[in-house]
Amino acid sequence: MRPVYAISGGVSKFAKARPDKTFPAVVQEAYAYAIADIGLEFPAFTRLADGSVASYFSDHFTRQLMAGIMVQDYLGLCPKPSHRVEGGGATGGLCFQEAWKSVASGHMDVCVAYGFETMSHVETWKGNEFIALASDVSFDYPVGGFYSGYYAMMVTRHMKEFGTTAEQLAHVSVKNHQNAFHNPYAQKRSRLTIEDVRTAPMVAWPLTRLDICVMSDGAAVTLLASEEGLRRLEDAGAHIARPLVRVKGIGRGTDAMRMADRPHTDYDYFMEHYATEQEKGSDETRRYYKALWKQGTRYPGVHSFRAGRTAGNMAYRQAGIENPLAELDFIELHDAYTSSEIQTYEDMGLCRYGEGGPFAASGKAFMPGVEYGLRLSEKPVCPVNPSGGLIACGHPVGATGLMQAVFAIWQLQGSLGKHFGDETLQVRGAQRGAIHSHAGTGTYVTVSILEQEA
Question: Using N-to-C axis directions, what is the helix angle for 23-37 and 67-74, rounded to 10°?
């Protein structure tokens, strides 16, 4: 495989609605920004691009089949090769990895990954129905309804199993909304308290409206290139930021659509097939997990996302990471719910299973230098969702995973202040970060590791 570099990115403004532009024009907004950031004119870059990958979740929202080809044409990329990917909430993460594959394989030297969703064309209840069609419509959907119900069920099991509290969930919401206060692309820029989150309208206990992401219109674009692609672009006058940002590892995992179909594993199988290298090497952690299994914990159950653990471990192996909490400088994580962020702390090996709640309230996942109005017992170690995440930035599904990639690129280029007009969210000295994209109730999950090239 050839080295692949994420050289630039652009994000449109995420909003509840973008009546000012059609969906191809919203994508073009992000695409033009990404091109301008490397100092090229629109026609010059388009001639140099070898092709693209398109990302959008639902034909229902656009009310247009083959919407991707309309964007391809609008961006001037016809007749270059392209294909559309779709995988629920993980669509953007899958798109980023498909673009990586196109370059790593030698099929392309310069690849555009673009994603979008315009969810405002339907009422919120109808949008929730469309999203719920990404569960089993013959089994889960008739008895479970919307996704908030599924996630409420999962977190109540987490609470019963591990003692997680609603206040710990609220710490995630306060953190992500406060981070987004400094992000001009975010849909919701709010200063919240724990009380604000807990007294917001209840959707599905214990999840309130402020524990849940919102529907959005928006788009995001990343540009990926090989070493040959870099040379071609720079020969044409592009100014590629240094240090270069390299995609060092990718991972994917899947799980059964129906949670009831997910098998439980015993302690020995878990340690052999799912435990991180750090967990395997710790006598204390092995004793801790043995005690959990003795108490009746079963993995993955409905409190964990096996696909997330699989994706994380695969990406860590490729990138040479053994201790993600210590070796990652930040993570942009798919927080459709505050509860799913807590669950994913555990799946990505930031803490042990059962410790996601205390980890959320500890301060380890917070940004240094930001005033959250909370009493945090520990200093930040690995900021999670420094951008504000889905809960505060918004969740135009096909764009979300690519939005995470763009923010990660800017973090690693040290250029977040330039793009945000505010350096508050710049992770100082960031050299390696992860992006995590998640679909359904954990049916598709992607993890990609980006780092500065030495």
Answer: 50
Identify any residues that bridge with 207 across adjacent strands, giving them in sequence order: 204
For tokens 């995630």, the residue is 172
Does residue 62 belong to any structural domain of this protein? yes
* pLDDT tens by residue, 400-439: 999 999 999 999 999 999 999 999 999 999 999 999 999 9
Q: Is the whole model's pTM more than 0.90, yes or no?
A: yes
Structural domain total, the chain: 1
CB–CB of 453/240 below 8 Å? no
Buried b (16+ CB within 10 A) or exposed e, 136-170: beeebbeebebbbbbbbbbbbebbebbebebebbb
User: Which residues span the domain enclosing 226?
Assistant: 5-122+215-235
Question: Is residue 261 classed exposed, middle or buried when 0-12, 13-18 and 19+ CB atoms within 10 A define those classes?
Answer: exposed
Nearest to 104 by CA among 248, 237, 270, 238: 248
Report the DSSP pairing between strands 202-204 and 51-55.
unpaired
CATH of the domain at 87: 3.40.47.10
Six token digits for residue 264: 């439980």
- Alpha-carbon distance of 113 to 92, in angstroms, equals 9
Domain-embedded: residue 95: yes
Rounded Cα–Cα distance for residues 275 and 187 (Å): 37
Residue 183 φ then ψ, to 5°: -110, 110
The pairing of strands 330-332 and 432-438 is parallel
- Output the CA angle 217-395-316, nearest 5 degrees: 140
